[in-house]
């Protein structure tokens, strides 16, 4: 047993030595191939495919595009939908290949740390990127480090725990995430005063000044916008549609997004209209104007951009009461909430019952629609968002 323990310690020491050698190799490459960042701003994002988080990243980048920051992509993107938009805001470096491979990621860490440490007062911002946290211990103290957590429960909050001391500011997008993060700190013995570094900054969407919607018809028009990943539970939309047919509720369902995972080849798509992934904001807005309800049966969320966009276009959201959704969506006031539960059949029935109720009570539908639009105009225009992110990066110096 003693020999096994000694062998394990030797292996750990060898791995640490190899890691350090690879890191220094990366730092040496930065001397041989010196790239200069004249902005002092560094952004680390996972990808540039379509998603709510990626649209927020694009909004942040647009505020600083005139400075030409570095935008480092660390994960493989499913599509290049927002690549051009990101590229217009800075120097886009798609480093997903080396960042995702053992050994290469350590060399890359050394290279990027050397580039960042060259700057007088760099600001280094990361969101949803595990690679970003590998950099933090290697950065000079004059580097200001900030991260953004979109949703609690996606793993970022756990991956980042060892690096909390090195983060100068942390941004969350809803009060629920702030509360959960403070509780996580308490559970793991993180110094209580570090919770004071957490900033709540709500996202923004374009809120039309003069909204013109399509007239409502006999059939309620229900919209789903999002990916087909497991936590979104997009497959339930088809089941809700079938439940409406069974209940005699006239409704049509339109789904926007890459939904291959939720509706693979051969899946039951009866009664569903699939638009596919849309990249043009004008097209997406047109669909909001043509629909009455947004359905979002997610098991986990932060506060989804699609709810904000729907409300801005007077579309009534029907959503599970998860994450930060209940902090903005008031059941029966500006939308409808369904209690989260593991029983998918019960969820389907609850969503179908809401659609049936709103079909029967058009006065309620109109009240909720007007209240949703009013709430979005008051809360989601983004003055605070722009002000915060402009001030955050003012200290950057090349």
Explain what you see.
With 398 residues, the chain is α/β, with parallel strands linked by helices. It folds into 2 domains: 2-204 and 383-392, Rossmann fold; 220-379, Glycogen Phosphorylase B (Rossmann fold, 3-Layer(aba) Sandwich), CATH 3.40.50.2000. Helices cover 41% and strands 15% of the residues. It contains 14 helices and 13 strands. A 7-stranded parallel β-sheet has the order 3-2-1-4-5-6-7. Strands 10-9-8-11-12-13 form a 6-stranded parallel β-sheet, with helices on both faces. Strand 6 (169-172), helix 8 and strand 7 (198-200) form a beta-alpha-beta unit. The longest helix has 31 residues, at 2-32. It is elongated, with a radius of gyration of 23 Å. The model has no long low-confidence stretch (mean pLDDT 94).
Please tag this protein with its features.
single chain, 398 residues, alpha/beta, Rossmann fold, 2 domains, seven-stranded parallel beta sheet
Query: What is the annotated CATH architecture of the largest domain?
Result: 3-Layer(aba) Sandwich
The CATH class of the largest domain is Alpha Beta
Largest sheet entry? 7 strands, parallel
Runs in which pLDDT lies below 50 for 5 or more consecutive residues are: none
Enumerate the strands of the largest sheet in spatial order, edge to edge or round the barrel: 3-2-1-4-5-6-7
Mean pLDDT: 94
The N- and C-terminal alpha carbons lie at a distance of 54 Å
Count of DSSP strands: 13
Please tally the helical runs, counting DSSP H or I stretches of 4 or more residues: 14
Query: From the structure provided, what is the oligomeric state, counting identical versus distinct chains?
Result: single chain
Protein name: Glycosyltransferase family 4 protein
Organism: Geomonas subterranea
Pfam family, one: Glyco_trans_1_4
